[in-house]
Write a structure and sequence with these properties.
Oligomer: single chain
Strand content: under 5%
Number of helices: 2
Mean pLDDT: 86
Shape: elongated
């Protein structure tokens, strides 16, 4: 098999074989989605550091 320097391919290969890593990646993905939704709702509501209190 040829060596790759593509980080995404390397991570995907490791992730396929490590159930613990799969769980951590899933949790990180969920946390990132929640953070995006939170930021979007703050932006839409006009909330910022000055108005948050």
């Amino acid at each position: 098999m040829a060596k790759t320097s593509d980080a995404l391919k390397i991570i995907e290969k490791i992730n396929r074989t490590d159930p613990d890593l799969q769980g951590m990646v899933a949790l990180a993905f969920i946390n990132a989605k929640v953070a995006q939704l939170n930021l979007r709702s703050k932006d839409q509501g006009g909330i910022n550091a000055a108005t948050a209190g």
